[in-house]
Amino acid sequence: MKRYLYSYQTIVRFYVQVDRHFLKLRCQPSASEYQTIVDESVVLHPVGFHISIGTDGFGNRIITGSSLIPHDSLAYISSGIVEQTDYAIPDPSPQPYYRCHSALTEPSDELRLMAKEHKQAADLCHAVYEAMHYEPGSTDVRTTAAEAFAQRKGVCQDFAHILLSLLRLNGYAARYVNGLIVGEGATHAWVEVHDGENWIAFDPTHNCQVTHGYIKLAHGRDANDCPVCRGSMSGSNISQQTEIKVIVNEI
Amino acid sequence: MVRSNTISAMKANRLFWLGRYEERVYMTLHLLRQCYDKMIDGNTADYEEFWSRLDCSGAYSTPEDFRMGMLYDEHNPNSIMSEMNYAKDNAILLREDITSETLSFIEMSIAHMKACKDKSETNITALQPITDWGLAFWGSVFQRLHNQKIIDLIVIGRNIEYIDMLIRFDYPFERIRHAYEEIKSYGKDMTRIFDTMIEAQLDSLFTSENYDPLNMDYKNKVLKYINQLVIV
Amino acid sequence: MADVSINALVDSRNSVNKWMERFGVRFGVYKKGVFREQLFPFDSVPRIISKKDWDYLEKGLRQRVQALNMFLWDIYHDKKIIADGVVPTEFVYASKGYMPECEGIDPTLKVYAHIAGIDLVEGKNGQWYVLEDNLRIPSGASYPMIARTVTRKVTPEAFADNAVADNRDYADMLRQMMEDVNEDRGIAVILTPGRYNSAFFEHSYLAEKTGATLAYPGDLIVEDNIVYYEGLYHEKQRVGSIYRRVSDEYMDPLTFEPESLLGIPGVMEAYKAGNVALINAIGNGVADDKGIYYFVPKMVKYYLNEEPILQNAPTYLPYYKEDYDYILANIEKLVIKDVAEAGGYGVVFGNELTPEKLEELKALIISEPRRWIAQEVIDFKDLEVLDSEGNGSMRKADLRAFVVSGKETRVWASGLTRYASNPNSFVVNSSQGGGFKDTWVMNK
């Protein structure tokens, strides 16, 4: 049993006033057998956003908000304490769609070839780590597994998509996870695979099976399904500057 | 089913401009008839001044080009064809508010204009149906529509355009006074439809003592204000 | 028909088209990236469906749409049909139309396909076949609606003996259905992507005829999971039902395509909370996939415990070994359809391909069996079309029947009969030329 203090903070500054601003946030830790929420809070600026809470189709916790009042910044902070045991989330019948390829994990011929060389999740994770070079800025949020693999470089999101593609080619139910890891930085992405009883986790960026210290926020078929923040606002060519700070420490 | 009388900002804008363009078609045709009449046996100076008031001086080099161009030239925003098209661009987005019947007069006008263009018809009597259907359009607006806000917005647009044309062509003040009163009366239920600063300016400029369309400063000022009066 | 001479029909053809122009009856097409509106040519010789045939079709259509609605509920809830092995897992979950975001959402009255457009053809032997189920945003009902309004004016004598079912009740059917699912929550709106959508005429015409408010992107906002229509001065009117003509992936930029400007940010949460009805439901694409089509007769048996009344065109799925062998052996006489494509572009006739192209197609089927279906070519009963001089020629034609489901499932006694642009074409999709006819359902 381990306890972690986490804080996820975002500030978005718009260069022009925006109004008709709509938001969907997945910035709170998920609750499961792996992870219990001891205490938490979310603070959102500007005050005056109409807020509703709920869950999305994948079971993630969401906060939706809308504001029709002009403003030039958006800021929120999600913080609290979670308690973790070993990373295993029981699920007797995983949704069948986690076995099917999704838009960002559609395999290429070279991924199909690679999927034939290894069968076990840990081996596939290792193979992705070996094949790929971590290089920030080499891909963007729309890059598919096939594209990132073709250039053999990417960031944690791409590593996760490639591993998902390989796992699904081997018949596994596997899902993409968005979350935070111990230390200071940004969000991280890893993969959960169903072992027949439980969802267990692998992090291809760090070449390891995850035991604890990974604060899970949300999951989906790929990154499209579970971003931390999605927004929509009026106005064209709104330029913005986003600053994200993450701090996680074991207590 | 609960029906809505609410009009969105986009719709209000389109209704306003539909009224303006319908009126512009009618007035342009009316004024062109006078201009073409002068061109029959008048001096060049008589009708060139007319062109300039329609912002078309320099656009056409010969009287023949002017005749064709003012009717059918889709690159000339002041041609009857262009104004009809603008009216239609607004109207087809308003079918459920103005009814298919009201819209049909615009559709028929466009089809007729195209047929006349194909025949290079420069005899303006051939365009009489455009005037007739224009009047039928207004008949349909007043007789067939039930949502008063819709009628208000179209009629306000019509009168703004009417005043704009009257000023350009130095019409007597009585005409303007009447149209301006109509704008006020159709706008009385819409608290925020007028820019109150501009309204105050126009109230003082539109008096029989101050009306002076031959003074270019005055003319430019009221033309600017009348086009900024309505907020949609 | 005996009373109506050919001359009267030719005369009425031109006169009816003139009336349609007057009412702005058009559809838009994109050619080489440029949007153009064109008139939808109307042929005045009606397709006539006997009372006997219609009684059969009506029963069959109601049954089919009921089963499809039950399938959609099942797929997004208990998934019994998959657990029972009637439909293979991957045909559902690998389909582009399946939306996991809709898992567990309960649409009002459990209706998913409020408006279904079922495409049928009549074979030379008099047997009707279903070619396609359209459960997302089927279009086309407005054309026969307005055509009948006009033809009754232009050739009243043709309708004088009261034998033709009056089809001018479609707007009433729609309005009733919108009321059924609205449950007095607010106003009814029709959401259009705007005038550059190919079916914009239909959106505006249906709004006029039903009395619903036509909403454009940006007119609707969501606050506290409630949808509002926003007025000029930001006054808000609550919306109870949205007949949306915007496709699933553009409906909510917070849930689907993030760059979409056509949708309503946050509408999925309002929908999920049961605060607004979406017509049609989101996620219906999973049931009108060309691959799922094969299983529809099995759904009828599974959910209703009835024999399917309507027949599919004989269809083979390369997914099954037996069908796979049959397709590869008989490819030159089959129609091959790409499951993922729509709009009549992904349809290939084996007999039109060179031997090299046939081999290429075979290789594609071998590498991706799930992507294809194959069908026997149906010997259509052709319909006569008159040109402006009154000369007749025969064309392929289909019939899109409209089925409207609210508290009850009703079949519209009419439909859109489309015909191919030239005598040799099998493709009747209006985006590839061609025109339409009135469809006369006989009362006696």
Q: How would you describe this protein?
A:
- The complex is a heterotrimer of chains A (251), B (232) and C (444).
- Chain A is of the alpha+beta class.
- Chain A contains 4 helices and 17 strands.
- Chain B has 2 domains: 9-145, no CATH class; 171-232.
- Chain B is flat, with a radius of gyration of 18 Å.
- Chain C has 2 domains: 43-148 and 166-308 and 393-441, no CATH class; 315-376, Dna Ligase, domain 1 (2-Layer Sandwich), CATH 3.30.1490.
- The chains are: A alpha+beta (251), B mainly alpha (232), C alpha+beta (444).
- Chain B binds chain C through residues 1-4, 6-12, 92-93, 95-96, 99-100, 103-104, 107-108, 111, 191-192, 232, and chain C through 21-24, 175, 178-179, 182, 184, 186-189, 195, 200, 204-205, 207-208, 210-216, 218-219, 229-233, 235, 237, 240.
The CATH topology of the largest domain in chain A corresponds to C8orf32 fold
The overall average pLDDT of chain A, rounded, is 94
**Radius of gyration based on Cα positions of chain A:** 18 Å
Q: Distance between termini of chain A?
A: 11 Å
- Helicity range of chain A: 10-25%
Order of helices and strands of chain A: EEEEEEEHHEHEHEEEEEEEE
Task: State the shape of chain A.
Answer: globular
Q: Can you tell me the residue ranges of chain A where pLDDT is under 50 for at least 5 consecutive residues?
A: none
- Helical stretch count of chain A? 4
Low-confidence stretches of chain B: none
- Global geometry of chain B: flat
H/E element string of chain B?
HHHHHHHHHH
Strand content of chain B: under 5%
Q: Biggest interface in this structure?
A: B-C, 25 and 36 residues
Measured distance between first and last alpha carbons of chain B: 28 Å
Largest sheet of chain B: none
Number of strands of chain A: 17
Task: Determine and state the CATH class of the largest domain in chain A.
Answer: Alpha Beta
Classify the beta-strand content of chain A into a percent band: over 45%
